[in-house]
């Protein structure tokens, strides 16, 4: 049974290795006898050495002369200027030392020096121009996740644009639509750059003001990373690279924000999962309704009442509840390993909702 399992794993691993290494159009050698299977005999290190892409992913996040962050809170609204009726935003990608917790600082790739990057918040139908200067040691691009942009603005390197090289500037321009909860993130070596911190909320307000706007409206971006011996790694579901820190808006509990609301307030939380893992987010004390999925409103008759919602990578869920009960109510991921900081509980994906009289 065990041997069978190893062989199945070995075949999958071999297939993955071959598909990752073989150039398109070149047939892979599938005639190798199992006894010579390099996967069975290789050490993880030598496997990585044979696969430059994998080796790159295993490298710590680094950049020359990384400075401590000058801001401490990410996801704050980004100021803009108006030029000929266009809202003009400026982003600079750069590496900083970002504190996720008292005594724990990671090397992060950021937009404007924070994790998440600054929130772009505009109204449906606005013309927006976003000027991106790349001060990272690596190329990058930005994808406007869920926003309905023209193809040339989609940010896919080698498909819709050339990567923005270090020192270069690229300008994105589009009409903000539709209304809803969206985000922007790197689309260049996303498995490294996004994990390293290149993500931020992009909120589009409806053109017609909401009939019943919430008293409290918070964006919660969920991610993970790995810290080993003071070095930061992109977290990914592969051997040895599992995350050991989990963040909401770039912070791990108890450094996560406490959300204070008044009894009777309508509260909206916009979950955005931007890491590599699914997070079933659970609210104590009060059930909520899912009012929008991936930015799009859920018709009232179809809104589920829940106390836990699983947010998969790339997904957004807007939830709403009326804060009917006073007290300190916990919101946390129910994969309980995700509520630890390097295996110490409590930590990670937790925050407190403080309902006051
Ligand atoms: Cu989780």
Bound molecules: copper (II) ion
Tally of individual domains: 3
> What order do the SSEs take from the amino end to the carboxyl end, as H and E?
HHHHEEEEEEEEEHEEEEEEEEEEEEEE
In total, the number of strands is 23
CATH class bucket of the largest domain = Mainly Beta
Radius of gyration: 22 Å
CATH level 4 superfamily of the largest domain: Cupredoxins -  blue copper proteins
Instruction: Report the span from N to C terminus.
Output: 61 Å
What does the model show?
By secondary structure, this protein is mainly β. It folds into 3 domains: 1-25 and 33-42, no CATH class; 67-205, Cupredoxins -  blue copper proteins (Immunoglobulin-like, Sandwich); 216-356, Immunoglobulin-like (Sandwich). The chain has 5 helices and 23 strands. The protein has helices at residues 2-21, 38-41, 44-50, 52-57, 190-193, and strands at 67-68, 81-83, 86-101, 104-111, 120-123, 127-134, 142-145, 169-175, 180-186, 199-205, 216-228, 231-234, 245-248, 259-262, 266-273, 279-283, 288-293, 296-297, 305-306, 308-311, 316-322, 327-333, 350-356. The strands form 4 sheets. Strands 11, 12, 13, 15, 17, 18, 19 and 21 form an 8-stranded mixed β-sheet that branches. The longest helix is centred in the first third of the chain and has 20 residues, at 2-21. It is globular and about 50 Å long. The protein starts with a helix and ends with a strand. The structure holds copper (II) ion. Residues 279, 333, 335, 338, 349 line the site of copper (II) ion.
